[in-house]
Amino acid sequence: MSWNWDVAKDFLPELGKGLLITLEATALGSVLAFALGLVWAMAFRSPTRFVRWPVAAVVEFIRNTPLLVQLFFFYYVLPTWDIKFSALTTGVIALGLHYSTYTAEVYRAGIDGVPKGQWEAATALSLSRGRTWIAVILPQAIRRVVPALGNYVIAMLKDSPMLALIGVVDMLQKARAEGASSFQYIEPYTMVGIAFIVIAYPASLLMRALERRLGH
Amino acid sequence: MATETDHTNPAVDGSELIRFDQVTKRFGSNTVLDNLDFSVSSGKHVTLIGPSGSGKTTILRLLMTLIKPDEGTIKVDGDYLTHEDRAGKLVPAGEKHTREVRKKIGMVFQQFNLFPNMRVLRNITEAPVNVLGLSKDEAETRARELLDLVGLGDKCDAYPTQLSGGQQQRVAIARALAMRPQVMLLDEVTSALDPELVAGVLDVLRDIAHTTDITMLCVTHEMNFARDISDDVLMFDSGRVIESGPPEKIFTEPEHERTREFLSAVL
Fold first, then answer.
1. Which residue from A66, B55, B188, B214 puts its CA 20 to 30 A from B66's CA?
2. Any idea where the ABC transporter domain is (chain B) (predicted)?
3. CB of A145 within 8 A of CB of A110?
4. pLDDT tens, B95-105?
């Protein structure tokens, strides 16, 4: 079997369309993971254990079960409860929820890194709990953890092909379709691999540079 | 729009502003305060002295509600700080009640604890705007006045990390004053400073002590400063007040052996 440039050229537009879906799933998944992770991290700090414990249990459960199982669960089980989303939306929810359990730990480390004196100063000024979080703690915590969050975006990008298994037409799905119709496998799959490395490698270099700049 | 809401401090009539009643505080098996009773009258400047570990800072931290007493009650301006009076029964106070009472108290920390993500001006206006409900303009006008008072009128737009320790501490003093507290708690405010920066901070505090009627509760190792601003000096040892009196008396003719030992070690 040898490389056929014509096949590669024919596949290129399809790859582009798949790439957009891959990036869309990663971007939306990241937004969800960042937002939910923050909610978990703040719940870990709740003064009431009736908030802390259930959240910790749920987060551990999600983190310690495979993403693929969660993906299938959402795709096949939720519709039987009359909760219906498109394949892409389902994929984004699974991806975002799964990775929120990792970003939660990242935020937690950032929050723990804010000196105790900052909380005490906020108390001494009678700032409300909400205001303390928004104006004092989170701006300091998030700054420190931007590179670590970025690394999870890259991890999500690389996990996004799992969405092909529930029928999301991302790059991998495009390659499978190409293989099924033309029996050409080497070009599409190679190109998908290259597309991933072309995005992921510079992104991880960027995160490393960011880490150095923020002094880690 | 409210005009200049000059929330005047209650008349300095010597009424009781702070009262500790049988307060006990333990950390693990270590009893830091042991059935402590003491009170501070409105407008007074009181300095707590004593060896480290004797519970001085714990008193300030209890007043600021950074820690809770294990036993006993604390009253500020007639209101319980960590308790609420519900139909004659004393119950642990809710967050809201505590926050209301706490508004009367300001604190300056050893490590300054300015918010590094905010410029100097916003460090000072953040609480007046969000807690007292001042307009942004009003809060900023006041913040600039306070910065002038502490000699940092030109540092509004600086970030805390761009300032020296002494400057940061003066901003922290301005930040505490911006809440117009009735009581200022000063927790070893010069201990973290390089020696040449101490005088500037103490000058500012002296100025405030002599020109305002804010009650001050001060933990310090600067005995000259204590002598200069204090109406009363309380000598602590092992979680108890073993001696108290005006500074002339404590510093020149202390009665208690422990006080003599302590003073000869630090003076």
1. B214
2. 18-263
3. yes
4. 888 888 889 99
